Amino acid sequence: MNVRILSPDLYTYGAMLIGGILQDAGMEVTLARSAGPCEEKILLLSLYSTQHLLDRRIRDCVKQHRENGGLCYAGGPASTAPEMVLGELGVDAVVVGEGENAIVPLVRQGVSAEIPGIAYRDGDRIVIQAPVPPANLRRPLPLIPDDIGSQSIRGANAYIESHRGCLGGCTFCQVPRFFGREIRSREIGEVLREVRAFREKGARRISISGGTGSLYCSHNGKLNPGAFIDLLSGMAEIMGSANVSAPDIRVDCITDEILDAIRKYTIGWVFFGIESGSDRILSQMGKGVTVSQARDAVEACRSHGLKVAGSFIVGYPTETDEDYAASREFIAEQCLDDVFVSIAEPIPGTPLARLVLRTQRDENPLFRPDKGEYRSFGLSIAEARCFGMMMDADMYKPRLHVITDQVFDLYLKEARKQGAEIRAVTDLLYRYYGSNLQPDCE
User: Fold this and answer.
1) pLDDT at 406 over 60
2) 3-class SS string, 21-66
3) Cβ distance 304 to 340 under 8 Å?
4) β-bridge pairing 206-209 and 244-245
5) Under CATH, to which class is 144-267 assigned?
6) How far apart are alpha carbons 200 and 196 in whole angstroms?
7) Is the per-residue pLDDT at 82 higher than 90?
8) Per CATH, domain 272-442 is 3.40.50.620
């Protein structure tokens, strides 16, 4: 059996994982980053973004493959909206949720009501079989492409999964809805075996994924710093500390031990999802933390000699001018080493998607025109806030950053791009769900 896995633009860990499982089952598997003619009988799509449903390259690839008699299946985070995947891409089936138990029988047997965790069309109706998460996270080595060293995801060639699940309940995030809120950790030996395999394939820097790295081996909400430290030290022994990163951490999931280990065994950066400088918005986002905790976390990292980056979300449907001003004030006072700004995206299956569906378009900052200082650019309020915050972030970084015409134009283009893409996703949600509340958005 010959299978091609398309992971658009970058090799995701999920695509490599599924590739390894299929290869271990005796199949010939090819992993690709770009859409194009597929000679294999089966084409698997690893869809890590809702934007892929609107990507003309992917749509044409699926259409051509099926017209040539091939079968096409899709999986990944976008599978939380199987109706949209089936409707927009016309694939034969969608793997829903964690796909380890479904993928081999699906590829071998084709669509069947006996296979858990798939969605497919049966005449005019859509059948969704409940997924069955794997009993444990032991599995074959991922299928690592020979050119893995050529890709960069925030500086790392690949993100390796250390655990699944997140204690948080952020309204905009898929992780607790996709993997659950219970932490399921992999054995340290299994993770380090993968690190060695990636290094042998040419990877130069490896990062830990899993939402919040320091939750590795936590239990009942209690951190296990020792296990996390052992993992970092083991990775550093294989890759060298200058080639390991563990950036994504919640502001309420750090200890002095953890921060010391990050300084000792990694490149020395921490990435916090700060999201807002307004406690009101943080509460509505379900972050479970306060602005004060975020300030304390930044200070703690700096006291341990670490660089700190933060992500911020603007254009949340209920965000006011005062909320936005509070975020700008936070950035100005904290002088973060790096800042990532994004417009709130209603990812299917999240409470944010539910909120957007019940928000009138003329009340949504993504659709309301900006009448402030950037009104001459024809931006929406969300786009203007995105653009303004990116400018602010450069102004207050510890090292001097000069806002040239090129930088100005780059930020303006990025804000417009985000706005256009997220409006398209929002329109897609309206088209499929109208004002109905998705049952899995609780």
Assistant:
1) yes
2) HHHHCCCEEEEECCCCCCCCCEEEEECCCHHHHHCHHHHHHHHHHH
3) no
4) parallel
5) alpha beta
6) 6
7) yes
8) no
